[in-house]
Specification:
The structure holds 2 protein chains of 2 kinds. Chain A is α+β, with helices and mostly antiparallel strands. Chain A has helices spanning about 15-25, 30-50, 80-90, 100-120; strands at about 55-60, 65-70, 75-80. Chain A starts with 16 loop residues before the first helix and ends with a helix. Chain B folds into 2 domains: about 10-215, Rossmann fold; about 230-340, Hypothetical Protein Yjia, Chain: A,domain 2, CATH 3.30.1220.10. In chain B, helix 5 crosses helix 6. Classes of the chains: A alpha+beta, B alpha/beta.
């Protein structure tokens, strides 16, 4: 049972194992929850660096799920990254490939943008 | 140790081609003692026959999941048997401390891992301790050359046992060692003469899992005919800590798209915490990552990850990691590449 949303979680995706272990481990309290929340926000940011190339966007939903949306306003709720990639593929009609040279070029261009931005500061 | 393996029963998978001596090996190990509470699940009766209190025979029954690839099949037979054992164990009818699964010669270990690691009940009660692959010293080279399944088994292996070294020559065994190491640099390679191997073959390999550093880098064998299997591997090192969240996004994306071709991902990841995270994956399936308490047993604190793949150029993995490095937070470096291990 998920302590936050009361939903029955049968499967822990491997990318959530660490958070899961901490939450069900001995230590805990507010610190664990705050870290968990922070990690989710960071994960969403990172994912959007990639998803924006495909015209998609991810948002945290109540700290328990994620909402994946496209530019037409279609939305899909996903529980973890294991569910997210297949839904993203459906939403944009093609496979999301981390080896695709066009995506890699897009990421490098983002990096340059970040560098330029820093130079101006 | 993390909570991922505590209170769970170890499952050891022993596989290898028909005639590779896996039944003989298993029979001898069981005789050694210390396996009184182990249950053995076998797929076929070999010539050797096993004499053990708890042998259960199952017939391979695979359910292809909708949209599933070859590795994401459910082995219903295995699930049923493991569930039965669990029930018997919990009702006190059976005392059980380990399950050993001996597969058919052609079995791909991936569906078995998938069945256990994703089953809503089994995943909480069992963990995969080791995948052991037997390879016959005399015919091993031919199996590797002619059979994709043999290569897949070796790629998925934690340990490779070269059997029948009493029949083959030391040179054959040495050549086979080189071939195995070039397919799977993470595998621990052991030899078993007369079907005798130490029972320690079932103890988990060190989680660093990168024993290729202890053995000299395998050299290409001269005079062998060129032959492209498309199997390659690359070992990548990161000296700065990785951002685990970003790395998780990258790896889950890679496995979603190319899981069928990614025969193995194994390594340790420095995430800037007290200890590293050990990752281990076969095709689409990643074992629950193990969070180690400290860096004891490691010479240097860094991340080292081995990728074994089919029909993907290792440079593409490297290019991708380079482009993702701002997100991941560390710069990748190539430690070793085996472009054509079967040549």
């Amino acid at each position: 049972m998920c302590v936050l949303c009361g939903e029955l979680v049968l499967n822990v995706h491997w990318t959530d194992q660490k958070a899961h272990d901490l939450e069900y481990g001995a230590a805990g309290g507010g610190e664990v929850q705050r870290n968990r929340r922070r990690d989710r926000i960071r994960r969403v940011q990172y994912a959007n660096n990639i998803l924006s190339f495909y015209g998609l966007n991810l948002a945290d939903w109540n700290g328990s799920k994620y909402i994946l949306s496209d530019k037409k306003g279609n939305q899909k709720i996903v529980g973890d990254l294991g569910e997210m990639w297949p839904e993203a593929q459906k939403a944009c009609g093609r496979g999301l490939d981390p080896l695709d040279p066009a995506l890699l070029e897009y990421l490098r261009a983002q990096d340059e943008h970040v560098h330029v931005h820093h130079d101006h500061e | 140790m993390s909570t991922t393996t505590t209170n769970k029963l170890p499952v050891d998978i022993i596989t290898g081609f028909l005639g590779s001596g896996k039944t003989t090996l298993l029979g001898n190990i069981l005789k050694e003692g210390g396996f009184e509470d182990a249950s053995v699940i076998i797929n076929e009766y070999g010539l050797a026959g096993l004499d053990h209190r708890l042998i259960r025979r199952i017939n391979e029954r695979t359910t292809l999941l909708a949209g599933g690839c070859v590795c994401c099949n459910r082995r219903e037979d295995l699930i049923l048997e493991l569930n039965d054992m669990l029930n018997a164990c919990q009702s006190g009818e059976l005392s059980l401390d380990r399950v050993i699964v001996e597969t058919t010669g052609l079995a791909n270990p991936a569906p078995m891992l998938f069945s256990i690691l994703t089953h809503p009940a089994l995943m909480h009660h069992y963990f995969i301790e080791t995948v052991v692959v037997c390879l016959d010293c005399v015919n091993g080279e031919a199996h590797i050359r002619d059979n994709q399944e043999s290569v897949k088994q070796i790629a998925a292996a934690d340990k490779v046992i070269i059997t029948k070294t009493d029949i083959g020559t030391p040179e054959m065994a040495d050549n086979l060692r080189v071939s195995v190491a070039r397919i799977n640099p993470t595998a621990v390679i052991l030899e078993a003469a007369d079907g005798i191997a130490p029972r320690s073959i079932f103890t988990p390999a060190p989680v660093s899992g990168l024993p290729w550093r202890q053995t000299p880098a395998p050299q290409a064998k001269p005079g062998k005919p060129e032959h492209t299997s498309g199997v390659r591997n690359i070992a990548i090192q990161f000296d700065e800590p990785l951002d685990w969240l970003a790395f998780g996004i990258w790896l889950s994306m890679l496995l979603h798209k190319h899981g069928e071709k990614m025969l193995r991902v194994k390594g340790i990841v420095d995430v800037g915490e007290k200890g590293p995270i050990a990752i281990n994956g076969v095709q689409h399936i990643i074992h629950p990552p193990t969070h180690l308490d400290d860096w004891r047993g490691y010479e240097t604190r860094n991340s080292q990850i081995v990728f074994i793949m089919r029909d993907i150029e290792p440079e593409r993995i490297m290019d991708s990691l380079m482009a993702f490095q701002r997100l991941i937070g560390a710069h990748p470096e190539i430690q070793e590449i085996n472009m054509n291990p079967l040549a």
